[in-house]
Every structure is written in C-alpha cells, then in structure tokens.
C-alpha cells in the first residue's frame, strides 16, 4: 500500500507545481482531488487493518473483502468530497 501513498504525493506535488507556475485551471484541481482520493485509499486500508487485525488473501471470505472495499470507498469518498 505504500505505492498509494507515493502516488498521492506525486499528485499533490503536481498540483503544487501548477500553483507555483500560476496555473489555476482544471488540471490543478484534478491533481489535487486525485491526491485526496489516493490518500483516502491508503488511509481506508490502514483503518480496516487496525480495526479488524486481519490480512486479506485470495482465499478470504467474500464478506471480509467487501468489508475492506466499503471502508476504503468511504474513506476515499470522504476525502474526495472534503467532508
């Protein structure tokens, strides 16, 4: 999951560079929001791991996989919408 954190950092860096270049168009907003979404995925994953203390493998029960997906989606939605 460290990859998601690095991708978020790249998106935030791109938005900051665009801001420094005085470009305040839709690409800057898109990069900023994509940074929020990918950071939300990272946080959602670790929220689930800390709350339930289990690893998910391909042999895990489907409800456990759905639980993690819902927690990650809720975290991504919250950060992306700014709640």
Mean pLDDT across all amino acids: 92
Identify the overall geometry.
Answer: elongated
Q: Beta fraction of the residues?
A: under 5%
The low-confidence runs, each spanning 5 or more residues with pLDDT under 50, are none
Transmembrane segments: 5-23, 29-47
Keywords: Membrane, Transmembrane, Transmembrane helix
Describe this structure in words.
The chain crosses the membrane at residues 5-23, 29-47. Keywords: Membrane, Transmembrane, Transmembrane helix. There is one protein chain. With 83 residues, the protein is mainly alpha-helical. The chain has one domain (2-81). Helix content is 80%, strand content 0%. It is built from three helices and no strands. The protein has helices at 2-20, 26-52, 62-81. It is elongated and about 50 Å long.
């Amino acid at each position: 999951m460290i990859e998601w954190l690095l991708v978020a950092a790249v998106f935030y860096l791109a938005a900051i560079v665009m801001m420094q270049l005085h470009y305040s168009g839709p690409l800057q907003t898109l990069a900023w929001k994509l940074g929020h979404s990918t950071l939300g995925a990272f946080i959602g994953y670790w929220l689930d791991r800390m709350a339930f203390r289990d690893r998910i493998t391909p042999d895990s029960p489907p409800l456990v996989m759905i639980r993690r997906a819902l927690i990650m989606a809720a975290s991504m939605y919250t950060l992306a919408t700014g709640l």
